Amino acid sequence: MSEKSQDDKLPIRMLHDRVLVRQDTAEGERRSGGGILIPATAAVGRRLAWAEVVAVGQNVRTVEAGDRVLFDPEDRAEVEVRGVGYVLMRERDLHAVAADRFEGSQDSTGLYL
Fold it and tell me: What's an example of a GO molecular-function annotation for this chain (predicted)?
């Protein structure tokens, strides 16, 4: 991950157990594993989404900025900062964390992907 300049830093500080994430993909058409195009209007059951953690509050213990997290897009609060859309949630609303630091970790709890 590249080092961000001071100008790229968000002008906010997260409080308590809040996590600010940026969703990986926009809603719309997508492709199945077999290459079939699935239109945006297709009805899909409850589907979790991946996002990148942008900022965390001081009481967040399991994720850091730059981690990828799995969350339920229906349980979210959206916010716009400098024209970019983000999702704000509590740490307890995250379902999984994927980060390079967990690779081969001896103290892993098995909760992380």
Answer: ATP binding
Query: How many secondary structure helices (H) and strands (E) does the chain include?
Result: 0, 8
Q: Which two tokens stand for residue 8?
A: 């790229």
Question: H or E stretch including 78?
Answer: strand 77-81
Instruction: Dump pLDDT digits (tens) for 22-69.
Output: 987 655 666 667 777 766 666 566 678 889 999 999 999 989 999 999
Domains recognised in the chain with CATH numbers: 13-25+46-107 (2.30.33.40)
Q: Read off the pTM.
A: 0.67
